[in-house]
Amino acid sequence: MEIFDHFRHFVAAVASWLTTAANWKGSSGVPELLWHQSELSVAVVVGAVVVGGGIGLVLGHSGRGGLVAVNAANAARAVPTLALLTLFAIIPSISLRAGGFLAAFLALVILAIPPILTNTYVGMREVDADVREAAKAMGLTGGQVLGTVELPLALPFILAGIRTAAVEVVATSTLAAYVSFSDLGTPVIAGLNTNNTVEAFAGALLVALLAAVVALGLGVLQRSLTPAPLRRPGRVGPLITATRTVSFQKT
Amino acid sequence: MVAPVAAAQPFFQWSYVSGQWGQISSDLLQHISLSLLALGIGLAISVPLALLAWRFRLLRVPVVGVASTLYIIPSLALFAILGPITGYVASYPTAEIALVGYTLLILIWNTLAGLDAVPSDTREAATAMGYSPTARLLRVDLPLALPFVFGGVRIAAATVIGLVTVTALIGLGGLGQQITYGFSIVDFYTPIIVGLVLSVALAAVCDLLLVGLQRLLVPWTRSARRTRVA
After folding, report:
1. Would you call A103 an interface residue with chain B, using a CB distance cutoff of 8 Å?
2. Which residues of B, range 102-121, sit inside 8 Å of A by Cβ?
3. Is the model more confident about A143 or about B230?
4. What is the DSSP letter of A233?
């Protein structure tokens, strides 16, 4: 019974943290922290789409160097984001830019590029060679084949990669709070550091909620952007798709 | 030997590595044990669950749903959520639940994809030879799905090895402790670089070992691939 009382007390304390007006106002209020995190995450995903998607499209279109790129992207998965964050955060020329934004941005872009690059490349390679040939035979230029044939057919893969990356970025951007970038990770880190379990828990709930909303929201977006004939049955696609194909990129 | 940098401190100090080797190697060992434990538990949970979800289609949605939820929740948030129950400081259960939770979706999804990819001719032949559905699943479908399972293990291993560093924020972390230590001292890059490089090296060695193990356990994938290319 004592444990149960303790539990009830804890839940009440978390609820009261979440409903305290002071935690929703000012520069360390939840809306401001959420805004910081959204800004950072959107910037990172856009950056990763430009770099990773661009490389993936070019390699997928030409069909060259893809194996190297996919393996390199896979190896990049092993790079601990915490190490990159701390490293960038203590290099003076990076850390001081925009309140730690640049350091967090760079570390997270490196995290977000691999899934987007891999999925884009794999999606481009999955395009039926006959379809590509037919498009060429109809007189389409290389650019037109890429834009009107390959890209639409590869789109489900690319969108899945962007979704995976976005979910990872939103989740990992909470770590940026460790290097003093203020976002929803801030109450979690502060709570863990000061043994304020209520604050940590309340922050964690918000972070988990945000990640879930992003995962589901992008799933719906992914589905509505996928050309109708390519849609698979079922409502929202799985979070990870490319692992199947990547698993065959053996060395 | 040491690359000079504009900062007062050199970018990398070999003397730190030699002087602190005892601490570094014990961090490395903790990193390996945290990762292996997470992968082992992850596999022990994922493969049976995936088999069940494949055998009984109704289970597929809840199994993948729960695994996806665990995959989505940020590890840092999971530490804070689990902390009141399993302990905040240097708690192996807290760290392992978060790490294992992250491997589940990767492993389950790959196993399911592998089972889905078994040619229907093979499956029909097995049925015609008198295999019961469960026997067929274990003795025909699962072995043929192994390349996919290995693909999942390789990705899960790389992900977990990278993620272990985050557990430094609750006092474990393996090589992550080098990272937080370096960050706690002004202008001291060396420990962070040690943590980064050793963590990536560990992932690379682990991947090579897994590829070797795959060749040993699933030798037919190599010849299968050659035939497809030819």
Report:
1. no
2. 105-106, 109-110, 113-114, 117
3. A143
4. S
Helix (H, G, I), strand (E, B) or coil at B38: helix
Q: Does the interface predicted TM-score (ipTM) exceed 0.90?
A: no
Indicate the DSSP class of residue A231. Answer: P
C-alpha A223: how far from chain center:
17
Instruction: State the Cα angle at B141 between B135 and B145, rounded to 5°.
Output: 145
Which of B:146-205 have CB within 8 Å of A? 147-148, 150-152, 154-155, 158-159, 161-166, 168-170, 175-176, 179-180, 182-183, 186-189, 192-193, 195-196, 199-200, 202-204
Cβ–Cβ < 8 Å for A71, A250: no
Long-range contacts of B85-93 (CB under 8 A, 24+ apart): B88/A192, B88/A195, B88/A197, B88/B170, B88/B171, B89/B170, B89/B171, B90/B170, B90/B171, B90/B172, B91/B170, B91/B172, B92/B34, B92/B37, B92/B172
Provide the H-helix boundaries in chain B. Answer: 14-19, 21-55, 60-72, 75-86, 92-116, 120-128, 133-136, 142-163, 176-184, 190-217, 220-229
A78 secondary structure, DSSP code: T
**Amino acid sitting at position B115:** L
Could you give phi then psi for residue B185, rounded to 5 degrees?
-115, 135
Q: Which two tokens stand for residue A225?
A: 């952007």
Contacts of A246 in chain B (CB under 8 A): 151, 155
Give A147-216 as a DSSP string.
IIIIHHHHHHHHHHHHHHHHHHHHHHHGGGGGGT--STHHHHHHHHHHT-HHHHHHHHHHHHHHHHHHHH
Going A127 to A128 to A131 to A133, the CA torsion angle's sign is: positive
Kindly report, residue by residue over A110-137, the tens digit of the pLDDT.
999 988 998 899 888 888 888 888 988 8
Report whether B50 contacts B143 (CB < 8 A): no
Nearest partner of B102 among B140, B135, B64, B70, judged by Cα: B70
Predicted confidence (pLDDT) per residue in A173-226, tens digit: 999 998 888 889 899 998 888 888 888 889 989 998 998 899 889 888 888 887
Name residue A15's amino acid: A
Residue B16 is classified by DSSP as H
Residue in this structure with the two tokens 């995450």, named with its chain if needed: A41
Spell out a b/e string for A147-160, using b for 16 or more CB atoms within 10 Å of the CB, else e.
eebbbebbbbbbbb
DSSP state of B174: T
Q: pTM, whole model, 2 decimals?
A: 0.84
